[in-house]
């Protein structure tokens, strides 16, 4: 089994993890109902993917009667860190500033978001 901090979820696995992070715990049926609203998918496909994720150590499961209730092992923030770091390394040649400039250039930020970004940059500047 892989350590949670070394996991690299696929896009489909990330969809399931996002649902679990929002819900806390869920059955395969719960997950499948949410996924069905986003795109057509078979119940058995969701079941198999969640079984694989359990085997990889991404999910825990607990038997409750005839059902299994799943929860995410990896925390949302840790997964975000991994995804962003991979993106910085592969798409931006290790440059976090290029990623930030690309993100800000492609997205219209609200005044509140811009204030939060400025505050965060000030906080980083004061640490140094």
UniProtKB/TrEMBL annotation:
Keywords: DNA-binding, Transcription, Transcription regulation
Swiss-Prot/TrEMBL GO biological process terms: negative regulation of DNA-templated transcription
GO molecular function, one term: DNA binding
Source taxon at top rank: Bacteria
Pfam family membership, one: Penicillinase_R
Coiled coil: none
Entry's family note: Belongs to the BlaI transcriptional regulatory family.
Name assigned to this protein: BlaI/MecI/CopY family transcriptional regulator
Organism for this UniProt entry: Taibaiella lutea
